[in-house]
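Action item from last meeting closed. Structure (341 res):
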């Protein structure tokens, strides 16, 4: 039997510990793709393939990029193949550029970071509307902020982004797909809602009056002068959808936006009852930011997107998954939303 004296054993242990410490301190080979780690979210998004795929309802999704006002705008549109033009390169396209189609559009602006662009929750045809989602022309995929990060709720490039969205719909999309230009709705998610309510609606909604704007988990008072408010304030649906545990900086911003848009309708001569039919609000879901189903960000947004027709196009506003009988509560008398502590 081999016998080791304690002093010798102690020296062996010290040598072993020293070796292990050296291994721990030695530089380690990086296993991740450092080039990818250095890319901005915009660059990472650009690496994802574009092209043609199939939507959840079997219709065609075209994912492509165009230049609008000097900015690269990537967008997806979902609709029947025969509603696309030859310029789209969609198999089965039959339409001429600029032709009016039977279907309208539901145009979505995603939240900060772009998740809803990739999820495309409004894909498929719903309520006679083809789904469109646009990727923000921003390093960090922020609507209204093309470089850097916004300070609080500020969106330094909101004017330019709102103009780009307007021009994409009016000038570019008619060359790619046939749609009813008098039937264009809008959906905002978080930061996309800020750009819609703060910049797009006041400056451009008169071009799309008589339809509607769904503002999910975010809203701003108009940040620019309101152009031709009388053209849309009296006939265009606006729904504010939030949750009880909304982000702290949005809890005062959303009620302020409600008051601002209600005032536009009042100034247009609408009665309280008429305003209540056009402008509605709900923040009953107990979830956090955009978690309308009480479970998650993407699934919560998908819940509202799946119920777009019932909320925005004359339905009763009942949403399976939200306990309120209806989410279509008049803004009149409910401007001061109560959030959880």
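Sequence:
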């Amino acid at each position: 039997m081999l016998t080791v004296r304690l002093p010798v054993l102690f020296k062996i242990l010290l040598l072993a510990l020293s070796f292990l410490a050296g291994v721990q301190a030695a530089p380690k080979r990086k296993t991740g793709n450092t080039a990818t780690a250095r890319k901005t979210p915009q660059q990472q998004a650009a690496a994802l393939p574009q092209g043609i795929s199939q939507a959840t309802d079997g219709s065609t999704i075209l994912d492509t990029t165009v230049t609008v006002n000097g900015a690269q705008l990537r967008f997806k549109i979902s609709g029947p193949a025969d509603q696309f033009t030859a310029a789209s390169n969609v198999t089965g396209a039959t339409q001429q550029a600029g032709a009016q189609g039977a279907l309208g559009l539901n145009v979505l602006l995603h939240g900060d970071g772009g998740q809803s662009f990739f999820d495309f929750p409004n894909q498929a045809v719903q309520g006679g509307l083809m789904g469109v989602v646009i990727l923000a022309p921003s390093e960090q995929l922020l609507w209204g902020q093309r470089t850097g990060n916004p300070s609080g709720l500020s969106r330094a490039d909101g004017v330019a982004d709102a103009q780009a969205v307007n021009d994409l719909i009016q000038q570019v999309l008619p060359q790619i797909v046939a749609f009813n230009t008098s039937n264009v709705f809008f959906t905002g998610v978080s930061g996309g809602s800020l750009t819609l309510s703060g910049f797009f609606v006041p400056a451009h909604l008169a071009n799309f009056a008589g339809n509607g704007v769904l503002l999910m988990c975010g809203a701003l008072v108009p940040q620019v002068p309101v152009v031709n408010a009388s053209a849309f304030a009296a006939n265009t649906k606006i729904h504010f959808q939030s949750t009880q545990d909304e982000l702290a900086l949005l809890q005062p911003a959303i009620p302020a936006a409600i008051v601002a848009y209600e005032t536009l309708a009042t100034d247009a001569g609408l009665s309280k009852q008429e305003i209540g039919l056009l402008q509605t609000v709900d923040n009953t879901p107990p979830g956090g930011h955009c978690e309308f189903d009480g479970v998650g960000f993407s699934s919560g947004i998908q819940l509202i997107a799946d119920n777009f027709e019932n909320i925005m196009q004359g339905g009763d506003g009942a949403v399976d998954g939200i306990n309120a009988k209806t989410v279509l509560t008049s803004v009149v008398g409910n401007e001061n939303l109560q959030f959880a502590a």
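Note appended to the action item: Strands lie at 51-54, 60-68, 71-79, 104-109, 129-135, 184-189, 212-216, 237-241, 279-282, 329-330.
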